[in-house]
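User: Quick one: structure for sequence A, then sequence B.

Assistant: Sequence A:
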Amino acid sequence: MLKKLYDWVLGLAASKWAEFWLAFIAVIESSFFLIPADVLFLPMALAKPNRAYRYALIATVASVAGGMLGYGLGMFLFEQLAKPVLSALGELQKFDQLKSCSGDQTLLVLLVTSGLAHIPPIKIVTILAGAAHISFVFFVLSCIVARGARFLALAWALRRWGETIRHFIEKRLGLIAGVVAAIVIAAYFAFKFFTPGSLAC
């Protein structure tokens, strides 16, 4: 099922409506969809390198909009809609674990790591941010920075190295994402070590 969904998203890259589909996938990825927008973004940027940054901008704006949707679900419709969606995706237990130990500072780290590296999945964090009622402005700004950095970095790499880097990204993106997330988390704990009084799980 997931493989068919992945192949369907990948096939949209050749559509004349590819930009629309990129925006659409980026929106729903940030609130409830399983397949990341990168699956569509990579072949589109490779096929038309001169539009790579345009695609990155579309994906960033749409992803932030999707994050706002997830935030709204968490804040206003958690029991009615967000909770059933998380349960259907098998993410409810992970959500509850994160919620039990999340303060504003922890959520900042989660927003950055999920935006840059999908760790944890961004839909969990956007809903969590709404459920925890963190500052909406703070939330939107963190989404813009993290998601923008991810898509712009991919656009830059694809324009510079083309098809060669695509294979590397597709095979090693999980590893790269994990390293990025680890660096962010390590920096956070280093900061907390020298700044006592943090929230603990």
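Sequence B:
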Amino acid sequence: MKILMHCVYYPPEVGGLESHVHYLCRALVQMGHRVEVVTSHSIKETPRTEVMDGVHVHRTWFPGKSTMGWIAHAAVSVPATVAAARDADILHAQAFQSIPPFIAARTRSAAPLVSTWHTSHFLRLATRPGWATVLGRLVAAGDANLAASAEIASVAESLAPNHHVQPVTNGVETSIFQASEPVLPIPESGRRRLIIPRRLFDKNGVEFAVRAIPLIMERHDVEAVLVGDGPERGRLEALAGELGVRDRIHFLGARAHADMPGLLSSAELAIFPSLMEATSVAALECMACEIPVAASRVGGLPEIVDDSVGGLFAAADPADLARVVSDLLSDPDLPSRGGAGRARVVNQWSNTRLAQYHLDLYEELIRRQVA
């Protein structure tokens, strides 16, 4: 089977969507299928075409990371998408920006179209009347619609009431994300290390984790490691200084995805203070590495995190975040929550299971088309 994916970003870009698509494509290749991806040339140092882990990647012009940039990329990627779609058995749009190029491709291809709805950005746009109409038409364009969380599925169905959207939690490559040798130095004697693997954008709520650190320090000797970069970094560093905890918060910046298992395994507990969230691949990766997770009670996070693997706190509430994290650090059985998280990911959200789910769906759509 030839499977053609379209996704606005793809590795070496770093992020949950990029990780999800890459590992899904790789698994499908390992199952014996040809997989091609049309994506953006967002990192200029990358080649226009290459084969990564058996996946054939085509990168097309990209003007910048903005709504208008995504729209322009979608338009410019149409020729490459149409060409690659001619002998494809399945078309799979991995972002709403990816659906219009496939609508154009279907003038030359009869392959079924699968659309997966990701990201909190979709949720924001869905609240705007003009965009809601556009997104509803895009939902209606697919032969099957998947969503990264129950919340996203519900919103997508509300935009196109006669079309079913199936929530399917993103997967984790559990052979890579597992407890590993720590790569950060052991903290000072008695000090506990927290890790916050979040890009520094407003929606990720990292400000509230920074504000919680002094409150956590009232009960525990802690330090926090922030892995990720973004426009909020300068403000967050200044805030840490104002709160007197600049020496307890280490800003590591963006790190390669391959570095993450060792970084995650260098901490006792991960914090996800998101204000909006789909299903967080990064949280699942922490769980796969046996790191308990404390997360805000928003979006898809409560679908994967509960008291058995960590804890939930109110979004945008540093006091509640500090309470939950402090209680977890006081639990002598905290490591057992990490083990429970690993078991949950392996049993429910491994990339192998996810790839088989997709393959079964693809085959069913092809059978339906032939019947």
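The first helix runs from residue 16 to 30. The chain is about 40% helix and 20% strand.

User: Thanks, that's what I needed.
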